[in-house]
Amino acid sequence: MAELVFFQDRTKELLDPTVFARAEQLAQEIAQEGKVKSSQFRNYFAELRALENRFLKERRHDPDKAFRRLVPELELLKAKLAYNTRSNGPLKGATTFVNFLNEAIDAGKRSPEDFLAMMKYVEAVLAYFYAHGR
Fold first, then answer.
1. What's the Cα-to-Cα distance from 15 to each of 7, 19, 67, 99, 112, rounded to whole Å?
2. Residue 29 falls inside a structural domain
3. Domain count, the chain
4. 5-21, pLDDT tens digit by residue?
5. In which domain, by residue range, is 85 found?
6. Would residue 3 count as lying in a domain?
7. Is position 27 within any domain?
8. What is the pLDDT of residues 6-63, one digit of tens each?
9. Distance between CA 36 and CA 75 in Å, rounded?
10. Are 80 and 27 within 8 A, CB to CB?
11. DSSP string, 80-122
């Protein structure tokens, strides 16, 4: 699978518009798979949003430290995601959703800019997920 890239021009932090087309396609696939509930998706997004809010607050004081603290929290979220895919877990069979979140989180760990772009991407997937009837 190709690396998830958010920027058309990284130096200018200009997002690639195709990111949102990918978000819509992915949301359709997640909805069609039918293995993730909207509340489950919202819960992961809420956790990401809380991490984003803390990161933005801490970044004002020490940007490097804020990102160094963020990355392990993202890894912990991936661990929770993995735990929920166990044989009797709530995300059992939600392969498309789990792969999407793992790929997005990995991309978000590359840099502070990638993390903020990842948040927009995940938000777009969630919005399209709702638009497609879930």
1. 4, 8, 20, 22, 14
2. no
3. 1
4. 898 888 888 889 899 99
5. 35-131
6. no
7. no
8. 988 888 888 898 999 999 999 999 999 999 999 999 999 999 999 999 999 999 999 9
9. 21
10. no
11. HHHHTTSTTSTTTT-HHHHHHHHHHHHHHTS-HHHHHHHHHHH
